[in-house]
Amino acid sequence: MTAVLSWGVGLPADFRSDDVLAFHRRDPLALAERIEGRTLYKGLAWEGRAACLTIQFDGAHASAELAVDGAASAAAPAALAQLLPRMLGLTQQVEAFERAYRDHPQLGPLIARHPGLRVPLSASPFEALSWAITGQQISVRAAISLRRRLIEVAGLRHSDGLACYPDAERVAVLSEADLRSAGFSQAKAQTLIRLGRLVADDELPLDAWIATLPVDEIRERLMQVRGIGPWTIDYALLRGFGWLDGSLHGDVAVRRSLQAVLDCQESVTEGQAKRWLAEFSPWRALIAAHLWAVGLSKLP
């Protein structure tokens, strides 16, 4: 039995669907995400079941279909209706940012180069946070490979054959040996399992926080989890919740692009990047996304 739900949204004239497709095209082996033309197929855990989320872009419209192996709850249609605009970044008020800074000497050229830039989000805060942990202190390419092995060891697969990114409950029951065999360091394995258990036990109500976005509480609670630090939290707030004011000054790609934007001869330090970004609150993370785009590297 497969339950199928559908929903659609209109898109602004400057919507950058290529950015969304590129974000989900990171893994060249397409284990859990597959792109065909203007359509994304993404495997994920939905209410504990394997599901395939299909998002199709057609001009000024995006349509989504969610095929769940088994029955879907009565709350599933409303959840899908909220998920689609959030994943596409449609809840981000980028127009206000562009109006405020289109004439700024450094930000103006960035905006002109990437008008309408939004930050595509992961399907859930847990996916964003676990991805951030996976990618700590390693290259994007290495992190993608490690992410793929996490999906494989979790073992959730949709009936159409697409592997599914695991939810917290599935990660919580993995052993440290499972993750070590998949290539995770001991520290990262312990952190992922710890995070999975805290979320599964509702001690970290990530999904509930989507509606209220208590940033200070999220930051305080996550800082108490061994293995999670400021960069990981700011990245998860951006990719998991769509919060655009995290200061990603610790990100190497951000600092490298900022060096070019500011025309500096020497590398930009974390302190310098932090001070420069501070002027632009509450848009610091959105500016980081523009700097990622300048670097022409894969968005992490």
Automatic annotation (TrEMBL):
<dbReference type="InterPro" id="IPR003265">
    <property type="entry name" value="HhH-GPD_domain"/>
</dbReference>
<dbReference type="InterPro" id="IPR051912">
    <property type="entry name" value="Alkylbase_DNA_Glycosylase/TA"/>
</dbReference>
<feature type="domain" description="HhH-GPD">
    <location>
        <begin position="134"/>
        <end position="296"/>
    </location>
</feature>
<dbReference type="Pfam" id="PF00730">
    <property type="entry name" value="HhH-GPD"/>
</dbReference>
<feature type="domain" description="DNA-3-methyladenine glycosylase AlkA N-terminal">
    <location>
        <begin position="8"/>
        <end position="124"/>
    </location>
</feature>
<dbReference type="InterPro" id="IPR011257">
    <property type="entry name" value="DNA_glycosylase"/>
</dbReference>
<keyword id="KW-0227">DNA damage</keyword>
<keyword id="KW-0234">DNA repair</keyword>
<dbReference type="InterPro" id="IPR010316">
    <property type="entry name" value="AlkA_N"/>
</dbReference>
<dbReference type="InterPro" id="IPR037046">
    <property type="entry name" value="AlkA_N_sf"/>
</dbReference>
<protein>
    <recommendedName>
        <fullName>DNA-3-methyladenine glycosylase II</fullName>
        <ecNumber>3.2.2.21</ecNumber>
    </recommendedName>
</protein>
<dbReference type="Pfam" id="PF06029">
    <property type="entry name" value="AlkA_N"/>
</dbReference>
